[in-house]
Structure formats: C-alpha cells, structure tokens
Amino acid sequence: MGGERWLMFKSVKEAEKAKAYLAPLDGGVDVGNGNGVWLDWTGKLKLEVGYQANVLCTEVADIVCREICKRFSVTRLGSGSVGWYPDSEWEPTPEERPTGPQARYGKFTTWVAWMKDYKRAFSHYFRVFPEDYTIEEWDSLEQPVLAIFAKLDQHPDMGQETP
User: Fold this and answer.
1) Which residues of the chain have pLDDT under 50?
2) What distance in Å separates the CA atoms of residue 156 and residue 46, rounded to the nearest whole number?
3) Which residue in 154, 162, 160, 140 sits closest to 24, CA to CA?
C-alpha cells in the first residue's frame, strides 16, 4: 500500500527536460533504511512520485517534489488520495478559514510556490509530533535527497528552470 504525489509540467518541452534530468535516477530515489520513492511518468506532462505508506517515505516524496519544483516549471500539484490541489484554497483569509493553507503557511498563494519552499515546519508529522519525529530524522531524509539532486545538477545541461 502506498500513495503518490503528482506534478504537472507547464509544457511537453519542460517535461522532457525534467525526464532527461531525472533519467540517471533509474526511476527512483532511495535515501536508505527503506525510505524512498519511485518516479513514474503517466502522461506527457504528469509525473507521479510514488511512496510506501509510511511517514518517512511521505516526507521523502515531498522533499523530492520540492527539488523538482525548484528546477522546473510545474503548474499543478496533486495527490492520489485527494486529486489536484486547488490554488483557490489559498484565497480565504485566516479569519475566514483558520485551518486553511493561508493560516498555516502564510505568504504563499499557490501550492507550487508552497512546495518550492517545503520544509520540516510544513510537515504534518514533523510539526504535529515533534517528540516522535526529530530533526535528526528529518535531516536523515533531506540531506541524501539534496546530495542526489546536487549530483544531478552537475550535468551542464540540467537543473536550469526555464522561464
């Protein structure tokens, strides 16, 4: 049992660029201890970042999505359990919707902008259960992902976001 995050790229050209960038990963990202994700292109513009149904793999999926969103023009985010995240959710003010995205995350106006800045403080698990999920555990997930993407960025044609 597992889940997936979805990324929709702005164009076929951008998706092909992302596909070439991610090709050395051979369809997945493994950060050790059984925590990782698989990457599956399910259309010309849609990338699924799949994960096992556990807290740490969920976080790896979000960190991987963050790194992809930073490098490529992604227009929509979604999840297998909820569908596409509507940017209209950001519109109600914290007073109108105290538990909504604007109240929880502040300055962002779209899910993609939020994902580009994803951090431990945004995580449901790491934020709500700090005694159960420590900063050391977060670092053990984030640092390997950062190292993998830093290595991918070394290719001279990769890692540059298109306007």
Assistant:
1) 159-163
2) 25
3) 154
Q: If residue 41 lies in a helix (H) or strand (E), which one and from where to where? A: strand 36-41
The secondary structure element, H or E, covering residue 52 is strand 46-52
**Following DSSP, what letter does each residue of 108-148 receive, concatenated?**
--SHHHHHHT--GGG-HHHHH-TTTS-HHHHHHHHHHHHHH
Number of alpha carbons in the 13 Å side-chain half-sphere of residue 17 = 21
Task: Say how far apart CA 34 and CA 101 lie, in whole Å.
Answer: 31
* C-alpha Rg value of the chain to the nearest Å: 16
Q: Read off the tokens for 152.
A: 């991918």
Percent of the chain surpassing pLDDT 90:
77
Question: What is the predicted pLDDT for the residue at 85?
Answer: 95
pLDDT of residue 12: 97
Residue 44: CB atoms within 10 Å: 11
DSSP letter assigned to residue 25: G
Give me the half-sphere count of Cα atoms (radius 13 Å) on the Cβ side of residue 124. 7
pTM of the model: 0.93
Domain ranges across the chain: 2-152
DSSP, res 39: E
